Amino acid sequence: MPIKVDSSKCTGCGLCEKSCPFGAISIEDRAKANKPHPKFKKIAVISSACTLCGACVDVCPFGAISVTAEKKETDDIALYKGVWVIAETEGDEIHSVTFELLAKGRELADKRKTYLGCVLIGFGIRQKAEEIISSGADKVFVCDNKALEVFVDNAYVEGICGIIKKEKPEIVLLGATAIGRAIASRISGRLKTGLTADCTGLDIDHQGLLVQTRPAFGGNIMAEILTAYNRPQMATVRHKVFKPLSKDLSKRGEVIEFGLPENLKLQTKVKKFVEDVTQKVNIADADIIVSGGRGVGGPDGFKVIEEFASALGGAVGASRAAVDSGWIPYSHQVGQTGRTVCPKLYVACGISGAIQHLVGMQSSDVIVAINKDPSAAIFKVATFGIVADLFEAIPAIIGEIKKIRS
Amino acid sequence: MDIIVCVKQVPGTTEVKINPTTNTLVREGVEAIVNPFDLYAVEEGVRLKEKFGGKVTVISMGPPQAASALKEAISVGADEGVLLSDRNFGGSDTLATAYTLARGIRKIAEYDLIICGKQAIDGDTAQVGPGIAEELGIPAVTYVKKIEEVGEDFIVVERMLETGYQVVEMKLPAVITVVKEINEPRLPSLRGKMKARKTEIPMWNAGDLACEMERIGQPGSPTAVRRIFAPPQKPAGKILAGELDQQASELVAELKKLSLV
Fold this sequence. Notes:
heterodimer, A: about 400 residues, alpha/beta, Alpha-Beta Plaits, Rossmann fold, 3 domains, seven-stranded parallel beta sheet, five-stranded parallel beta sheet, 22 strands, flat, B: about 260 residues, nine-stranded mixed beta sheet, two-stranded antiparallel ribbon, 6 helices, 15 strands, about 30% strand
C-alpha cells in the first residue's frame, strides 16, 4: 500500500484513528504488531478499508503517516482533446440535464482552450443537432439508428465507446439519471478509466486536470476527485446542478455522423414501458417539493399536502414513515432509502427530521419546516420554521399565497 | 438457481462530520452496518432460492471485520459467504472494486444471477453493480423493483426509471441491482443466527483471486481523492413568531423575496 506509518515516529496517540472517515485505522499494541519502540507501547495500523484520502496525514502531529502517489504508466494522454457531453434523449426529446451539462462543458472547454463536443445517440433525434449547437457545442456526433428506439444499455454503451475510442475526448460528462448512471459505469469499465458520480462542482486546475467535487457520507463531507493518469476523465452530474446557457441561434457548429458497430447483439430486450401515473411531477426534477411525514396522519392527510404543493406549483414528497404506512407510493420517498433531492424550496410538513430523511434533502436551497414539536430535529436544518399543527398552518399559508397572487 | 449477492459493510454514516475549523473528521462511535440496499438484494436472492432451489453465496470486499456483514446475510438465509480481503485492495475506487469482485465471482464460478443493492450509502455512486457486469461481460439491469419471471436461461424484470418503469428481458447469467421497493427483508431467525455463528467465512486475497496487481487497490484506481472538506455551512434558521396568521404571512413574504412564490 502506498500509505505508510513510520514506526519510529508514531506515538500511538490515536488522533489519526479519530480522523479516519472510513474506520480504517486502529491503535494496536506494538508487541502484537511486531513493531517495538523504546518509548511508545502503541502504534497506528491501517487496514485495507483505507481509501488514501489523506485525512490522517494532515492530522498527525508527528508526521508519522505518509502517502506516496504512485506514478502510473499511462497511454499518451496528450492525444486526448475536447470536452464532451453525452446527450440524454427521451424519445425524440433531449433531457434538460444535457443543456445544463453543455453550459458547464462550454466553460471547461474554454478553460482548456479546446472544443465542446456532444454525442447525440438515439432514434429520430438528428434534427436536434442544431439546438445542441446553439446551446454551446462546437461539434455534434450523431448516431440516429432504429435499433436505439428504446433504451438498451449495451447498444448505447457500444455506440458511445466506439466514438470515444476514435475521437479521444479528454473529458466526458453524463447526466446522473437512471440511464446515465447505468451506461457511464459500463463505458468507464470498458475504457478502463475513472468515473466520478454525482458531481456538484467541476473545474479545471492549474495542471489542466478536471477537478470533480462531490458530496460523500450523505453530504456531510465534500471530496475533490481527480482522474490524473487515465483518459477520458468521466463524471456524472445530477439534474439542476448547473444552469443552461441561453440559446445562441447564430452559433455554427459541425455535425459528424457515426454508426453502431457491426454485428451488435442486443443483450436486453425492453418489452414495454409503463408510465408512473401517481407521479404528476417527478420529485428528482422538481424545483419545489412539499413533503408529508408521520404528522400527516393518513392517506387523507396527503390531500392537504397535495393542495399545498399545487398552490406552490411543486411536487409531493414523503418521509419513510408515511411511505411505510402505505399512505403514499414509494416513488415519493425522500431520504436515504428513497431519493436524494435538492430543490429550490423544500417544505417538510409533520416530518420529525430523522437523519435518514435529512441526508436526502438537506442540500435544498431553502427549507421550510412545519411541525407541532418545537424540539423536532427538522428545525435544525430549516431556513424558516413554523411550530404549529400542519392542518392549521397549511390553510393559512395557502390563504396568504392566494392573497399575494390576486 | 445459483445466486451471488454482493454486500458492503458501511459506516453508520450519520455521525461522520467534519470540523470546519480544523478540517478534520469527527467520528463518534461509528458502528459498521450492512449497506441497507444490500439487505434487499440478499432477501431477493433468498426468495429466489426458496422458489427455484440452488444456493445463495454472499460476497464482500473489505477488511477482515467485514466478515460480520456476511454473517448477517447468512443469518437471514444466505448459504455461504466469501470475503475478499487484502491490504493491496486498499484505496480501490469503483473500477478496481468492480474488477476485484468480478475476480471473486469468477472464482466462485457457479452462478446464474448476481444481485447488488442499487448503491452503497457511503459512496452513493451506483457504479459497482454495472461495473461488475462489464468486467464479466454479461448484461445488467439497474434499479430493479420487481422480478416478473425467471426462465431456464432468461429473466424478466421491472426497472425503475424517473418517469415510470421498463419491463426488460435479459439472458442469464446477468447482474441486477435492486431498489427498496422490491421486497420487505426478513429479520434473522434464531436458527439463522446460530448458523451464521457457526459458518466459517473464507478469506481470499489477491493471490487467491489471481488478480493482475496493476488492476487492484490504488494502482488499479483511475480516480483519487485529492482533498476532503466540510460543505459550506448554512446560516442558522429562523423560527417564526406571533399568531399563526402572522407567521403565515411572514413566511409567504420571505418566499416572495426569494422569488419562490
